[in-house]
Structures are given as C-alpha cells and as structure tokens.
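pinging the channel bc i need a second pair of eyes. not urgent but kinda urgent?? the chain im working w is below, pasted from the shared doc
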Amino acid sequence: MKKIIGIILILVGGFLIYKGVARDDSLAGELDEAGSDIANKVDGGSRIPEHYYYFIGGGILAAAGIAATVGGRKAS
C-alpha cells in the first residue's frame, strides 16, 4: 500500500512540475515574472511568481513519493 501511495505522490509531483514549466514558458508566466520583478524593485517586497509554487510543491511531493516508495522496512 505504501508503494502505491508513493507512486501516486511521484506522479502528482511530476504533474505539478510539468504545470510549472508550462506556466513558466507561457505568456502569462512571463508577465507574472516581469510584474513581480518590477513590484519588488519598487517597494522592496518579496513577491514570488505563481509557477514557483508549482515547482516547490511538485518537488516536495515527488521527494515524499520517492521516500515512501524506496524507504521503509522490508516485509518478511
């Protein structure tokens, strides 16, 4: 059961990373990144473009899935 959950987490993480790459390459992603850069320079804030959250979430889920699939105790 742990391996099935791990594989699902890896797939969902991969999908989120794919969505992040697609958003990064799109016009909306480019505008989001440019707007964040401009706003950060104006007021000194720390805005993050939306596609970075896809990368972070996908990486965390994929790492958790790998840990669940590979790690753990062996059943005898």
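so The two ends are 15 Å apart (CA to CA). and Helices lie at 2-25, 27-43, 50-70. — does that match what u expected or am i reading it wrong
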